[in-house]
Amino acid sequence: MTRPTIKLAIAGVGNCASSLLQGIAYYADKPADAAAGLMHPEIGGYAISDIEPVVAFDIDERKVGKPLREATFAKPNCTTVFQAELPNWGVTVLKGPTLDGIAEHMENYPEHQAFRESSEEAVDVVQALKDSGAEVLVCYLPVGSEEAVKHYAKACLEAGVAMVNCVPVFIASNPEFAQAFRDKGLPIVGDDIKSQFGATIMHRVLTRLLGDRGVNVTRTYQLNTGGNTDFLNMLERKRLKSKKVSKTAAVQSQLDVPLDPDNVHIGPSDYVPWQQDNKVCFLRIEWDGFGDVPMHVEARLSVEDSPNSAGVAIDGIRCAKLAMERNISGPLLAASAYTMKSPPEQMRDDEARQQLDDFIAGNTK
Fold first, then answer.
1. 22 with 83: CB under 8 angstroms?
2. Any idea what DSSP says for residue 123?
3. How far apart are CA 57 and CA 139, in angstroms?
């Protein structure tokens, strides 16, 4: 008997999509009890290998018109290749609408590092979603693509497709969009994907731990560098506004009393080409301890950025499918709180994990 699949649409075939697609093939033959790197080997009976790409959109000339299995490794993608052989999904990458998806400064960088727009005409995203039979769309557009992300969100609403928004553009946490997804009977998980163990989750956990130990956090920063297109894109500072809001709120939410804005700095800091998809975080937290004695901790974290987020996105995708089967619509609060930096409702991570496990088990919405 053929196993049911989750028919997936992908907006943006970049490094994160590459890691996700590699993971679908990598875990296909691995037993659940030996599947390191997965937070939930199965969700609602779905393994990661049950995710089936049926349509993909991009704007780069090296990806548009190419088979998805080839576009996955096309420049400027630079993430680690841990699964070189991919299935022939029979999917050709379509030209999506560019809108504000490309920062102007990209043209000043070499082709192997930056986007190069295809001359093809953009397709009708709604019709493409309908024709493909897609059930869930995962959004991997560049940071700052406000118009483009909203375009895909509206297309999902019109085509009857659930959404997992991995981008710091506020869709699930926007009351109007949230209500629109409820009205259409569609679930959404968002916004701005967390890593499995990255800068934000480490910063959140340490901040919450300090609060639980009774100290008074006074100042903190998180500085990040990387060499992928995400970091190159964010050199245009005006595209960083929503990203900084998202990352800062994710940490501030763990404090009983939020810090004054002058005492917290969290966000991408610079583009270092040779780092490629490696992300390095420099973190410092200062606090007053017993007797108001000042103390601090400093940490350095180095991770491969895209596989780190793909391990989380697969949970969001499967939760969206599970919600559709259960006729649950609108923002999925537990799934969003556990997998995203800017969910509609912030929670402590242990609380979000418990609520997500309850949701998966069918004990709660």
1. yes
2. P
3. 10
Please name the helix (run of DSSP H) or strand (run of DSSP E) that holds residue 269, with its range, or none: strand 264-271
Q: Which helix (H) or strand (E) holds 173?
A: none
CATH topology of domain 6-194+307-361: Rossmann fold (3.40.50)
User: What is the per-residue pLDDT across 195-216, written as a single tens digit (0 to 9) for each?
Assistant: 999 999 999 999 999 999 999 9
Q: What letter represents residue 80's amino acid?
A: T
- Greater confidence (98 vs 30) lies with 98
Q: In what order do the strands lie in the sheet with 94-95?
A: 94-95, 51-58, 6-11, 136-139, 162-165, 187-190, 330-331
Check: CATH 3.30.360.10 for 199-305? yes
CA atoms within 13 A on the CB side of 80: 12
Q: Helices marked H in the chain — which ranges? A: 15-26, 68-71, 125-132, 146-159, 175-183, 199-212, 229-233, 241-252, 305-325, 333-339, 349-361
Query: What pTM was estimated for this model as a whole?
Result: 0.95
* Domain ranges (residues) in the chain: 6-194+307-361, 199-305
With the CA atoms of 139, 145, 146 and 151 taken in that order, what torsion angle do they form, in degrees rounded to the nearest 10? -50
Residue 238's pLDDT band (cuts 50, 70, 90): confident
| CB atoms closer than 10 angstroms to residue 329 | 18
Look at residues 110, 60, 62 and name the one whose alpha carbon lies nearest to residue 227: 110
